[in-house]
Design goal:
It contains seven helices and two strands; from the N terminus they run H-H-H-E-E-H-H-H-H. By secondary structure, the chain is mainly alpha-helical.
Length: about 160
Amino acid sequence: MSVTASQTRTIAQSPSTPRSLRFLDTRPVWLVGVLATLAGAVVTEVFALVFRAAGVPMAAASPGAKEAAEIPVGGFAGGVIFWSIAGVVLAVALARWAKRPARTFTAITVALTALSLAGPAVAPHTATSTQIVLAVSHVVAAAVIIPLIARRLGHRSR
């Protein structure tokens, strides 16, 4: 079953859509990207804090490092913000030049998220539990950020 553009607008503007999401539909792409990034950073940091409190060691090593270094509180949020800058720039560019910006953005960012899972998987001197938390945190951040930006990209500026 195919959904037409007019049906998508009708669905997107339905009363069951939360007001905050409808609000984002008309905001500049960069602003939605910044807000999505902040939301993703907070959710990801809380996710990490829960596992830190549960006793998962938060120390990881970069390739070539001789030992793992402590991931500071705020480190997960900082990483999300740092890497999301490229995603927001990508979204703004796609909004301007792509025929299907939402679809293209989603495809690229899901592929990049999948690639990002390799980092935690090969982190030397890092506990397996930490590697798992790191990998899942990438998915958590993506699950918050990608849909919000893709939703905005699906609504052309009027």
